[in-house]
Design goal:
Layout (H helix, E strand, L loop, with lengths): L1 E4 L3 E5 L3 E6 L17 E5 H7 L7 E2 H11 L5 H18 L2 E4 L4 H5 L25 H5 L36 H13 L5
Antiparallel strand pairs: 1-5, 1-6, 2-3, 3-4
Length: 193
């Protein structure tokens, strides 16, 4: 069996836990019109250590178990093996990793988004407003801010062509007071997201 990270899953390791989230939750796959998002998941410290052994390239489960045995020297191989298989099977069932037999990886990876595969698509409009859920039918004509995206920092050592922040301004960090003001104002305005 092989295991590898899925390309749309983001992982963050914290001192006492790990965090997995579907990058598509943040709207980054709009062009791909992809399937149902898998959401997010908190991992225990041990689960985070297990997940950190994965890479974007397929690894044999035996190799991952071997790496885990080097981390958990006082735990028997059979216990680590059983825990690893159970852990990665659970993550696979929830859509966070690929776990399976060695097959044609091109077929597996072909289902994920890439700019090389984007196909143009037409938005379908309908005159049947009574059957559609529209902003107006939900909130009335009282328009308001529904989503807010806050960049708390412009610090970045990249120099991307498409970036709207001039290089000389990529040094600032929002103060906690300013962030609190934004959150308080958003709460008063009933921002949805």
């Amino acid at each position: 069996m092989i295991v590898f990270k899925l390309p749309y899953i983001m992982y963050r390791a914290y001192p006492n836990f790990g965090y997995l989230t579907d990058n598509r939750n943040f709207g980054y796959d709009t062009a791909s019109m992809s399937r149902l998002k898998v959401g997010d998941l908190l991992l225990s410290k041990t689960g985070s250590m297990f997940y950190s052994q994965l890479s974007d390239s397929p690894k044999k489960i035996e190799d991952i178990i071997g790496s885990l045995c080097e981390l958990f020297t006082d735990i028997p191989y059979a216990t680590i093996e059983a825990d690893a298989v159970k852990f990665f099977t659970l993550l696979h069932s929830k859509g966070f990793v690929y776990l399976g037999e060695e097959v044609d990886l091109a077929k597996i990876r072909n289902q994920y988004f890439s700019y090389g595969k984007v196909q143009p698509y037409e938005l379908q409009a309908s005159d049947k407003l009574e059957t559609q859920k529209t902003y107006e039918s939900t909130f009335g004509m009282d328009y308001r801010l529904t989503r807010l995206h806050v960049d708390i920092s412009s610090r970045c050592n990249e120099n991307c062509v498409h970036c709207y922040i001039p290089t000389y301004k990529k040094r600032s960090l929002m103060t906690e007071d300013m962030f609190d003001v934004i959150i308080r104002q958003s709460k008063v305005m009933n921002v949805l997201n």
